[in-house]
Amino acid sequence: MKIPRKSLFTAVTAALFSLSVAAPVWSADTLKDVMKKRGLTEKDILAAAKTYTPTGGRDEYIVLSSGGQSGQLIVYGIPSMRILKYVAVFTPEPWQGYGFDDESKAVLAQGRINGKDITYGDTHHPAISETNGDYDGRYVFINDKANPRIAVIDLHDFETKQIVVNPFFSSAHGGTFVTPNTEYVMEAAQYPAPFSRDFVPLEEFNDKYRGGLTYWKFDNEKGRLDPSQSFTFELPPYSQDLSDAGKGPSMGWGFTNSFCSERYVGGNERGRPPFEAGCSSKDTDFLHVTNWKKAAELVKAGKVKKVKGSYLIPIKQAIKEKLLYLVPEPKSPHGVDVTPDGKRIVVSGKLDSHTWVYSFDKIMKAIKAGKFEGKDAYGIPIIALKDALDKSVNVGLGPLHTQFDSKPCVAYTSIYVDSMITKWDYCKGKVLDQLPIHYNVGHLMTMEGDTVSPDGKYLVALNKLAIDRFNPVGPLHPQNHQLIDISGDKMELLYDMPLPLGEPHYAVAIKADKLKPAIRYKSGWNSRADKRSEYKTRAGREKTERTCDASGKCTVEVYGTTIRSHITPEIIEAQEGDTVKLHFTNLERAEDEVHGFAMYGQNVQLSMEPGKTASATFVADKAGVYPYYCTEFCSALHLEMEGYLLVKPKGYKATKASLKAGTNYTKADYEKQVKTNLETQKVIDQVVGFITSHNYKDFPTVVALVEDATDQLGFAKDARAKAEAAAAKGDWNNAMLWANQWWQYQVKTADLGLRAKTYLEEHGAKKVK
Ligand code: K7E
Ligand code: CUA
Fold first, then answer.
1. Cα 256–262–267 angle (5° rounding)?
2. Whole-prediction pTM
3. 245: CA distance to ligand 1 center in Å?
4. Ligand 2 atom, smallest distance to 562 CA
């Protein structure tokens, strides 16, 4: 639908002359009326006031949540609980062009397993990069449990930059956890499997199947994981669970718990009791204590051998070099969390009602004294429970994960079976408060709760079941993230948020002001490789080239641009069978001026944020007409942002006919358009007058708008020159069309100018002079 010129012009004029903002109109309802109508209590109103965020308001914390089996990362704000973004990580996602443009396809290709494209991931645990044990807001890592992979997402643009595949594991639940300066990212296996990835009969489980723990080296300069400097601990075929890195006094050490240390293999079709019976028969499992600092030194000294191109520390070497110890822990534990001061380690057994608090100091004393109660079947020394345990606290049935408060010694543990959060004191070993949640909480998260300096304030319960909390939408329910106020002595439930994308396992929350996301890319940017694209195209330099190789195979390569409101080129020609390579650079500099590019029948959908260059490659194997267009409603003439790919059949001969216009214009049409343009210019001049007579330079948003408007006005000038040149030759058709293009740029300028003016009015700009 075209917006009629007249109405736009009227709108422009009307907005200009309404110099004062209209007085707000309130509905007649009072707060009491609304409370009565909606059945709200005073407590509800208080909760609403604590979470409600008025228009334009910002959140204090940004949450990066796992997207479970959607293979994505979910971003939302606290306390508003408004979803801000789904970041595509292991799964193609068309809005972001992820898995559709060549640049992101290259990232996904890094995650191939045995040559196979894996187009989903089971994401579990995001971890934000740290400096001195505190979030630094630079990167977030996340694991894929099903396919042992880790992704690196740059928080400067919230884009996935790298995927690495674990060279040994066949699953990886226990990732990601970072060491205090993001020296390493920890990733543990879950389901033991042969490291060779060859067939090995289950009968050889104890000897040939292995668990493991990889320390991925992170190159903080490059912002990428470095597989060549990473190393893996070979571990017994226990099911390794989660890990956490030591900090402060325990810096240099890592802690990884496990379950199924029975090494039981089920097989109901072989008449064996199932895994769940055999994997929970012993009273204790093992906490693995690893010395990564010393291991890194051995790697550096050339004392660790590479297997399949990757450093692997065999169990025997780890024992000999004193890198690996075991400590008994409660039955089928889940989650291990180091306290902010790094002195204690908290583990909970799913089938126990206690959290067990270990003392790092005691563990070190036992190691130094060589005091062990025995060895496991693989010769790994076991430290006796009494020589490692500080205390155990009865917190409720089915405790899982623990997070920390800003208040000293205060921790929160999720209680799965009893469906509640228990607040407790790990110094005094005492329960402080309990709050029921709905239902079956898995992980929980406090603000920056896994750093050396947690912020407290809020807690989110990541519940496994939503059951009756929301309007029913069929048998597959959303997940429920419940926001809880933990600023007082008693926990208060504030809000239920349905999360309809996969099953988020863990989430992390960072203070919003630690993030410094970009608004635009440097012009012609390959965002996935983080460098200038070799296909960067400047305005006026657009071209289409068709080249053929010796075998007669031809490629049509397009170096194009997008800007409000046209795509260059608007006509692309190819021959049946040609390979088509499209490269588009978004020339926009203005915030939020994204253009998309979709084409009929070719599975092409690009997203071009300001400055980005994105590419798509396909074979034009069928002759035909393929419309393409911009997929972001970027401007009033967005619907006209379009073009055609013409794929000509083999042997096609062009006729001499030229393009016929649907409408022919006269001198009078041209003159009428010019008159409109000159009137529009007056409006623009008045808006400009308003802006420049105020202290607009004090407002960065307005400065950006003015820059963009100046650009648009420059384009208007060019179009005007073309119109006048055509008019001079009496070519009224082209004169009229270029005059119209001139006006299009004016409308964009006016639109920007009015936005700037409104912003100034709303933000109390002052008149200068
Ligand atoms: Cu669902 Cu951390 Cu994978 Cu616990 S995990 S609940
Ligand atoms: Cu560009 Cu719509």
1. 115
2. 0.91
3. 17
4. 1
